[in-house]
Structure formats: C-alpha cells, structure tokens
Amino acid sequence: MKTCKLLVLVSLAALTLACGYGSKNYNTTPAAGAVPAISQLSPNSMTAGAAAFTMTVNGSNFGTKAVVNWNGTAQTANTTYVTGNQLMVVIPASMIANSGTVQVTVTNPATTGTGMYGNGGVMAETSSAMNFTIN
Predict the structure, then answer these.
(1) If we measure between CA atoms, which residue out of 62, 57, 56, 58 comes closest to residue 36?
(2) Nearest-angstrom CA–CA distance, 25 and 42
(3) Angstrom distance (rounded) from CA 134 to CA 54
(4) Is the peptide bond before 36 cis (omega within 30 degrees of 0)?
(5) Tens digits of pLDDT across the chain (135 residues)
(6) Whole-angstrom Cα distance, residue 29 to residue 121?
(7) pTM of the shown model
(8) 18 CB neighbour count, 10 Å cutoff
(9) CATH superfamily name and code, 30-134
(10) CB hemisphere CA count around 70 (13 angstroms)
C-alpha cells in the first residue's frame, strides 16, 4: 500500500514539473506606452516678472494622467487634462521671475500591470522638449 501511494505521489510530481508548473518565468516587463508629442504652447513666451498664467499645451497622445514638466520638474498639481490632444497647466509667477529659456515636456506616467502575474503595464513615456521663452 505504501509503495502504491509513493508511486502515485512520484507520478503526480513528475507530471506537475513536466507541465511547467515547477518554475514560473512570466514576463512582467511593461510594454512601451504611447509617446506624447507637443505641437504648440500657448502662450509660447512671457515677460520676466509677470503674474502667474495658464498655458495650453496642444499635441497628441496625452494620457488622462499626463503631466506637464517645466524644466524637468513635473507640474503634477498644476496640470489639467482636457483631451488626448490638449493639457492646461498653471505656471506660478515664481517660475517666470527671471529671463531665459525653459524646456517644456509632457509625460504619460507608467501604469502597473493588472493581470494575474502583473502583466499589462506600460512604461512612462516623455515627449520631446519644446522651448518656452521668458523675455
């Protein structure tokens, strides 16, 4: 009887390993996301020392959680999603106090996978920069 139980147990273990259940090698690397693109900033310049203003960023592939970056700093609290082609961002007066050129980009943030093994996520993607001039 013990021999029979041992044979059944060994057979089940062999079948389990042969079916691939012994080592789980699931690809959880996120896929590439949609790369946003900026086509226009409105306005595209301001006078140094001016008051805070709202800038409209037009383009394409903006995700619902897309964020405008001002010289590499995400304006998370100041960015408003309008459509997949338009975002609005409030630029505080402190950010335009001095003259110069600012790089404006848009980032679609990464999303985590929702599948049983974490599959289905996408990587963060950032647009090419567009210059904003502070005169």
Answers:
(1) 62
(2) 48
(3) 14
(4) no
(5) 677 676 666 676 666 666 555 455 555 667 888 899 999 999 999 999 999 999 999 999 999 999 999 999 999 999 999 999 999 999 999 999 999 999 999 999 998 877 666 667 889 999 999 999 999
(6) 8
(7) 0.76
(8) 9
(9) Immunoglobulins (2.60.40.10)
(10) 22
